[in-house]
Amino acid sequence: MRNIGILLFENVEELDAVGPWEVLAYWCKRFPDAGWAVHTLARDGGVVRCAKGMDIVAQHSFADAPPSEILVHPGGRGTRPLLTDDDHLAWVRERRAAVPLLTSVCTGSLVYAAAGLLSGRPATSHWSTVDQLAELDPTVEVRPDDRFVDDGDVITSAGISAGIDMALHIVARFGGADQARTVRRGIQYDPLPPV
After folding, report:
1. For the segment 123-158, what is each residue's pLDDT rounded down to a tens digit?
2. CB neighbourhood size of 51 (10 A)
3. Catalytic residues
4. 3 CB contacts (<8 Å, ≥6 apart)?
5. Which one of 41, 73, 96, 125 has the fewest beta carbons within 10 angstroms of its own beta carbon?
6. φ and ψ at residue 164, rounded to 5 degrees
7. Are 103 and 71 in contact (CB under 8 A)?
8. What is the pTM of this model?
């Protein structure tokens, strides 16, 4: 079984985590023979308060989380203190050495930049933080208009709902376009905003 870990932390943006969860969990359930499982993890496990007040229970702590093939680092207000949290940045660098594919949603890419993981790479973030991404690491090739940027072993996505697009891309990358279309149809994701 190959594992996908979705990181949770205080003040994580709800849809940054739950959007990719919905896509990836639907994929795992609909295509069990693909051999993927998805889980949530937080530093200490347990209940995590999200940016808009939703509480989510992390299934694992850092200590007992299964090894992951893919890690999703969401964004939200909670990333701001993580940019200077030496323990978290060290943990992210350790993940780089152990996890084949690191992904981020929204301002999760700022954390990757602060950890030095985006140097010389193309990347994106929430539209309101692309300048900050460039300030954190001027060598990053910032792509402000992309919904997500796949750079092989790192995928970054733009803000919030873009994480759903990125997660569908992950499904297409590892399961093929037909599986991704089945997931998109299953979760009825067909954005036609009313405004």
Report:
1. 999 999 999 999 999 999 999 999 999 999 999 999
2. 18
3. 106
4. 36, 37, 38, 39, 66, 67, 68, 69, 70
5. 96
6. -70, -45
7. yes
8. 0.96
